[in-house]
């Protein structure tokens, strides 16, 4: 009996040791898994922050860097049970500007709004989508909701200015552009949008001043350089046009392809300097 007792004691001890070892390994695994999850969450938060930083000056997702950032965050919406409003917002932008899928964009932005109703960004983006599809009344409701949530945010007014300009409603476009500038006088986007409106109105000198203001506020934005180049090209000021176009292309290669088909450059298209830019060669060869 004593030998059996010792066996049970030894067996029990072995079981306790095994359980302790298992718990230790499990705890270690849980700690590693927790650490991995924290790293993943930190990376996701960093990517989301980077996307919004890019969207500040590229809200229509034109530049390659912005497109990549939006695509990355949009992928987070694949996990429908754990997707954030930011992920659905990014998905809405990707569907609208990338896929040209207005219905899909509306659905994704609607999910972002459902998850965070008091966030102005998806309301504003939804306004753009609806207005672009001709649904003006609900679009204006979305813009107004964005304005109500964030009364000092210039973006809805600036976006409305763009939409009115595209619709040929120039008085409305000027009004909203000036409201945006009054709210955020140091906003490169607000100055740029107003410059485009002035260009359309034929007020080239005033437009150029707005583009120069944009460059003074942020030298990394390619569009104002490009638009200044267009204005100089229309006036057949070859040296100035080529210089500004080269600056735009250096910041974003997409403007090289844009210039190839842009009628604004027709008057200088035969200039050797212009041809060098299109071919990717230095203009001072």
What does this structure look like?
It contains 14 helices and no strands. By secondary structure, it is mostly helical. Helix 5 runs parallel beside helix 7 and helix 7 runs parallel beside helix 9. It starts with a helix and ends in a 6-residue tail after the last helix.
Which percent bin holds the helix content?
over 70%
Task: Count the beta strands.
Answer: 0
- Mean pLDDT over the full residue set: 86
User: In percent terms, what proportion of residues is strand?
Assistant: under 5%
The end-to-end span amounts to 102 Å
Briefly note the structural class of the backbone: mainly alpha
3D shape: globular
Low-confidence stretches are 31-40
Q: Secondary-structure element sequence?
A: HHHHHHHHHHHHHH
Cα-atom Rg, whole angstroms? 28 Å
Largest sheet descriptor: none
Q: Counting H and I runs of at least 4 residues, what is the number of helices?
A: 14
In short:
The chain has helices at residues 2-55, 64-74, 85-98, 102-115, 120-132, 136-149, 155-166, 170-183, 188-200, 204-217, 222-234, 238-251, 254-261, 272-279. It is an all-alpha fold and 285 residues long.
Task: List descriptors.
285 residues, mainly alpha, globular
Give the topology, please.
Blueprint: H1 2-55, H2 64-74, H3 85-98, H4 102-115, H5 120-132, H6 136-149, H7 155-166, H8 170-183, H9 188-200, H10 204-217, H11 222-234, H12 238-251, H13 254-261, H14 272-279
């Amino acid at each position: 009996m004593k030998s059996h007792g010792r066996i049970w004691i030894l067996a029990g001890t072995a079981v306790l040791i095994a359980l302790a070892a298992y718990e230790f390994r499990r705890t270690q695994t849980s700690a590693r898994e927790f650490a991995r999850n924290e790293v993943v969450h930190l990376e996701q938060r960093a990517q989301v922050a980077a996307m919004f930083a890019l969207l500040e000056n590229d809200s229509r997702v034109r530049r390659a860097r912005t497109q990549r950032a939006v695509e990355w965050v949009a992928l987070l919406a694949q996990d429908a049970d754990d997707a954030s409003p930011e992920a659905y917002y990014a998905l809405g932008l990707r569907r609208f500007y990338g896929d040209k899928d207005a219905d899909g964009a509306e659905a994704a932005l609607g999910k972002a709004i459902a998850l965070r109703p008091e966030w102005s960004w998806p309301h504003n983006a939804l306004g753009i989508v609806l207005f672009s599809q001709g649904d003006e009344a609900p679009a204006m409701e979305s813009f107004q909701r964005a304005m109500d949530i964030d009364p000092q945010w210039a973006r809805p007014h600036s976006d409305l200015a763009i939409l009115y300009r595209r619709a040929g409603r120039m008085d409305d476009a000027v009004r909203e552009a000036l409201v945006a500038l009054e709210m955020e006088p140091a906003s490169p986007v607000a100055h740029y949008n107003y410059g485009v409106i002035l260009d359309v109105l034929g007020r080239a000198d005033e437009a150029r001043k707005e583009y120069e203001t944009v460059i003074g506020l942020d030298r990394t934005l390619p569009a104002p350089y490009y638009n200044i180049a267009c204005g100089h090209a229309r006036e057949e000021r070859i040296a100035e046009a080529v210089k500004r176009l080269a600056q735009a292309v250096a910041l974003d290669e997409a403007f090289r392809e844009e210039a190839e088909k842009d009628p604004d450059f027709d008057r200088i298209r035969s200039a050797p300097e212009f041809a060098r830019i299109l071919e990717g060669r230095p203009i001072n060869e």
